[in-house]
């Protein structure tokens, strides 16, 4: 690659790393909230573990950006969460029990972790393609991607157990209330 091509590739890569850092910054904030709100001890413990990992991810990304003469961002990105039609969202808010809300939040956690995996996978592939100095980023990015994958896998593996713990209360709430809508 010519020097100008390397410079442009460098700038684009700094931008991508900063976008990932903004995602981690938002992720750390969300994990802190999730640790506070979850009622399941094993989920709390795992979220605390992933909070520590995410703080390491922030440092690794900051380091990579600084090594490339970029400025690490302190911005927080909007996380990739599903949105719903307004009437469905209103019905969900009106009818969801605390336990259903917890399951929904856990579902969102899994979506976020898988989105993070996609983001790091694409960056790693671009580094492999660009070669040269970009190869140095593959190690740290792979470490981060593996942590994200392990977190996504943990949630997937433990979701039946979480559901089993929350289900009785969801069912008793259903039994105790009049149907809010007709099927
Ligand atoms: Fe994560």
Task: Note down, in words, how this protein is organized.
The structure is a single chain. The protein is mainly α and 183 residues long. The protein has one domain: Ferritin, core subunit, four-helix bundle (Ferritin), CATH 1.20.1260.10. It has helices at residues 3-37, 41-67, 86-95, 98-130, 138-176. The longest helix is centred in the last third of the chain and has 39 residues, at 138-176. The model has no long low-confidence stretch (mean pLDDT 93). Bound molecules: fe (ii) ion. Fe (ii) ion is lined by residues 27, 50, 54, 113, 116, 148, 151.
Number of helices: 5
Mean pLDDT: 93
Distance between the termini: 62 Å
* Helical/strand content category: mainly alpha
Indicate the CATH topology: Ferritin
Taken as a percent bin, the fraction of beta residues is under 5%
- Low-confidence parts, pLDDT < 50 over ≥5 residues? none
CATH superfamily: Ferritin, core subunit, four-helix bundle
How many domains in all?
1
Radius of gyration: 20 Å
Largest sheet: none
């Amino acid at each position: 690659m010519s020097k100008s091509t390397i410079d442009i590739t460098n700038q684009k890569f700094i931008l991508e790393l900063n976008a990932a850092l903004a995602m981690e910054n938002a992720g750390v904030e969300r994990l802190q909230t999730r640790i506070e709100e979850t009622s399941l001890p094993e989920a709390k413990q795992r979220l605390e573990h992933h909070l520590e990992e995410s703080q390491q991810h922030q440092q690794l990304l900051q380091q990579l950006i600084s090594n490339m003469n970029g400025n690490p961002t302190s911005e927080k990105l909007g996380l990739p969460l599903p949105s719903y039609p307004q009437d469905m969202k209103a019905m969900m808010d009106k009818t969801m029990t605390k336990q259903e809300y917890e399951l929904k939040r856990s579902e969102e956690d899994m979506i976020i972790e898988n989105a993070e995996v996609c983001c790091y996978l694409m960056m790693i592939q671009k580094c492999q393609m660009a070669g040269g100095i970009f190869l140095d980023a593959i190690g740290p990015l792979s470490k981060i991607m593996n942590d994200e994958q392990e977190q996504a896998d943990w949630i997937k593996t433990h979701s039946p157990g979480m559901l089993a713990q929350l289900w009785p209360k969801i069912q008793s709430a259903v039994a105790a209330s009049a149907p809010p809508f007709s099927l």
